[in-house]
Amino acid sequence: MIPKLPGQTPLSSVGPMEWDPTRPKWRQIAELILERIDSGYYGPHSLIQEVRLAQELEVNRRTVRKAIAHLRSLGILTTEPGMGSSIAKRNGDETDQ
Q: Are 76 and 48 a contacting pair, CB within 8 Å?
């Protein structure tokens, strides 16, 4: 299970985003990504691409980048330049190498 961020509230996994005006959008996006990982929406080999997510959520790419950077700093995501971000391997994950 992915750790919940302090003050995290449930967000829709798919569909229009309703922003909480009292909290930073990047934090809400990070929580959405965490929800999607927990629900299986993003599988172990899924790419989480800044551009696609920014378009889907109708936010600036920099806002998505900040959310991804935060999750990367927690060890939840890894990023390959030019490829996007994916879920970091966790203990117990199988490798196909």
A: no
